[in-house]
Amino acid sequence: MRPSNRDRRRPALLALCLALILICIPVAAEEATFRVLPGGAAYEASVQVTASGYTFWSPGFLGEQVPLKVEDIEVLGPEGPVEYRDRGRGAITFPEGDYTISYRAPLRDNHFVVVFDTPYTVSLTLPPGLDVKNPLLGMVSRGAVISREPDEPLEITWERASSVEVRFYTPERELLLTTFGTIWAAIAIVLLLPFAASWRRNRR
């Protein structure tokens, strides 16, 4: 007995619905965690990857890939550390799989920037004493959520970010900016006082 057209349509309709559901469900982004070390001269990283290789690099002035000098590299798989091969120019290779890569890298000029091939959920921790709130000294790339608690590390997070950038500063730099700002404001007031007095006399 041949099934009716209605019976044959049901499996096809069910398959179509399942396909639409799978398309609509967002794929979870990989996670990357970074922690700036006290003093702001270096940071520690932990990055999830599904790959057979990884390249440590930072963008140059023209957006080119500049190899990043890193230390303490570890490739950690589900069963523990995995051996990797150093290919030079910041590239390493390892067997295809899911891993967490940890390393330490230097920072220059209080500037942190990373770029990913696919969207990542990113978190960056700044130790007490480093800040980003002053727009004249610090900056944070779009989409960031900043968690601030007194005397606690500063937590900055991004959801599904392809790149993140942070410029932070120390209390000494903020004090220096405040001092110079105060001095220039005082000089401006002294220079403008004679003009203000002359303008008032002319209006009388």
Explain the layout of strands and helices:
Elements: H1 5-24, E1 30-36, E2 42-55, E3 57-59, E4 65-67, E5 71-77, E6 80-82, E7 85-88, E8 91-106, E9 111-126, E10 139-140, E11 145-147, E12 154-167, H2 171-203
Parallel strand pairs: 1-9
Antiparallel strand pairs: 1-2, 2-8, 3-4, 5-6, 5-8, 7-8, 9-12, 10-12, 11-12
Give the helices and strands as they follow along the chain. HEEEEEEEEEEEEH
CATH topology (fold) name of the largest domain: Immunoglobulin-like
In percent terms, what proportion of residues is strand? over 45%
CATH architecture of the largest domain: Sandwich
- Helical stretch tally: 2
* Helix content class: 25-40%
Spans of at least 5 consecutive residues whose pLDDT stays below 50 are: 1-8, 11-27
The overall number of domains is 2
Count the E strands: 12
Biggest sheet, open or closed, and with what strands and sense?
10 strands, mixed
CATH class of the largest domain: Mainly Beta
What class, by secondary structure content?
alpha+beta
Shape: elongated
Give the termini distance in whole angstroms. Answer: 111 Å
Instruction: Give the C-alpha Rg.
Output: 27 Å
How much is the average pLDDT? 81
